[in-house]
Design brief:
The protein has 304 residues and is an alpha/beta fold. The chain contains twelve helices and nine strands.
Length: 304
């Protein structure tokens, strides 16, 4: 019988590792698996059992939490875990996979008798580490029991849970809408700072002109700081931002909605990724404004 205090975390990148630590801090028994085991090993110091096989991680767990790059990566991890899964296990799928990515996951859950929750999160590295994410949740077929079993996990990783209905997919659609706005802010910041530099305008003058007014947002200040300091430690990795921009573009096309800015953002992020910035924060899209991949690295001009 599954242990109601046991959670398996599949995927221990920036977000998954932070969530695993918070689950352990909430006194849940956590087992973690990552395709590259070395990335999961530091979690052992937080009372988390690191396993070499995905099936070993999920065996006996009441809840499985997946946090991986995209839908195919999630499905591959769950297929690897299949022999250890028990019917009735709650599966909280926290990755950004988009509406099309949900369908094969639901199919897998149905085939294995899992209680599937579509649960992408809002927030990046710092909120994840602090357990202050917002979790968007849809699914569970209206079962109050599934919610009750999921709540200790959701409360450990987030400050707020927004329930969006019984059918999986609603949460993933809202996540794309939110991330479209996030990408707009990131790209707008990066392009505006590049424009300022090109026109010989001090970045500090631009930031000072909007500070405290209706055109100022915390995200602008935070991402601008990364560019100006030349410090691109990833809060939202550029490769993930590119993936999300492509998901948004595809979903909009299927919905009959023409987007002009987001496909351009996707192309801009692809350029920066080709320059070697995929593992950097998405603010490194700044470099896509220039032909040389080394331009401005660690030395953004016009700094405050």
């Amino acid at each position: 019988m599954p242990d109601e205090t046991s959670v398996a975390v599949l995927g221990t990148g920036t977000m998954g590792a932070a969530m695993a630590r918070n689950l352990s801090a909430a006194r849940l028994r956590v087992r973690a698996w990552n395709r590259t085991r070395a990335r999961a090993e530091p979690l052992a110091g937080h009372g988390i059992t690191v396993t070499g096989e995905a099936a070993e991680a999920v065996r006996g767990a009441d809840t499985v939490l997946t946090s991986l790059h995209d839908g195919p990566a999630v499905l591959a991890a769950m297929r690897a875990a299949a022999s250890g899964l028990a019917e009735g296990t709650v599966w909280i799928q926290a990755s950004t996979v988009g509406p099309d990515g949900i369908a094969p996951l639901v199919e897998f859950a149905d085939a294995h008798g899992l209680c599937f929750l579509d649960a992408p999160v809002l927030g990046t590295k710092a909120p994840a580490e602090a357990g202050q994410l917002t979790v968007l949740v849809s699914g569970g077929s209206g079962s109050s029991l599934v919610r009750e079993r999921a709540i200790p996990v959701l409360d450990a990783i987030g400050a707020k849970t927004l329930w969006l209905g019984e059918q999986p997919g609603a949460a993933s659609r809202l996540k794309l809408v939110v991330n479209n706005w996030v990408l707009t802010l990131i790209n707008g910041t990066a392009e505006t700072l590049a424009l300022a530099e090109g026109l010989g305008v001090e970045a500090a003058d631009f930031l000072g002109a909007v500070a405290g007014g209706p055109l100022d947002v915390p995200y602008l200040q935070a991402k601008a700081r990364l560019v100006l300091e030349g410090a691109y430690e990833a809060s939202f990795p550029l490769s993930g931002a590119r993936k999300d921009a492509e998901l948004i573009t595809g979903a909009a096309r299927k919905a009959g909605v023409r987007l002009d800015a987001t496909p351009a953002i996707a192309e801009r992020l692809r350029r920066a990724e080709a320059q070697g910035h995929g593992a950097d924060d998405a603010a490194a899209s700044f470099f896509a404004s220039y032909e040389s991949s080394d331009y401005g690295r660690g030395d953004a001009r016009g700094s405050a």
